[in-house]
Design a protein that fits this description.
By secondary structure, the protein is mainly α. It has two domains: 90 residues, no CATH class; 108 residues, no CATH class.
């Protein structure tokens, strides 16, 4: 078997593992699903890898845990790398560095985009439903998770000023969208410059 075949097999194995890890992450959203026979098998297969990323506390914001997303992105990068090698593309160190920079950029913009979508949904719900004062409201749960994030972001722009919840939502949404666009541009330029390095 030649090297292209080996890289193709590795890409396929990583692709299957991505799917298994994704299913494992989805099972964590359903109470009791992790304790089924299927869930336990997936936990044994995927948790050792996912636990590597759970050690990074900075990937958790309030009750939002982005470690599975980062773990899946790393696997996707490995799968893309093996797929490229399987097609016979030659790789230079600069190409690998450019791919890593692009991966980091994609992870950052994905996280910012995810937060922006949650904030946008909450803002729309606030305008339609109100502040969700009932103790069992889903929005109360969302607000507990979002408030530390949005007030920290908005606080950077309104230092020492009292900020309303809606103002914090709007400010955070705009800041996240602009940051995402800026990061995308910088990463694209940086990745392009790195790939021009002749080694």
């Amino acid at each position: 078997m030649n090297m292209n075949g080996i890289f193709s097999i590795l890409a396929s194995v990583v692709s299957i593992y991505i799917l298994l890890c994704f299913i494992r992450v989805l099972l964590s959203w359903f109470p009791g699903a992790e304790y089924s026979r299927f869930g336990q098998v997936l936990c044994q297969m995927c948790d050792p890898y996912l636990d590597i990323f759970r050690r990074f506390r900075f990937l958790r914001f309030s009750s939002f845990d982005f470690t599975p997303a980062i773990a899946l992105c790393v696997l996707m990068a490995a799968e893309a790398f093996f797929s490229s090698l399987a097609t016979g593309q030659s790789f230079r160190l600069s190409t690998i560095l450019a791919m890593l920079v692009m991966l980091v950029g994609n992870i950052l913009t994905s996280l910012l985009g995810f937060l922006a979508v949650i904030i946008l949904v909450r803002l729309i719900a606030y305008l339609i439903v109100g502040d969700g004062n009932s103790s069992y409201s889903i929005w109360t749960v969302v607000d507990r998770s979002l408030s530390p994030i949005i007030f920290r972001i908005a606080g950077a722009f309104f230092r020492g000023q009292s900020i309303s919840f809606v103002k914090a939502l709007v400010t955070s949404l705009i800041a996240l969208l602009l940051s995402s666009v800026l990061i995308s541009y910088v990463i694209r330029v940086l990745g392009g410059l790195i790939s021009l390095i002749p080694f």
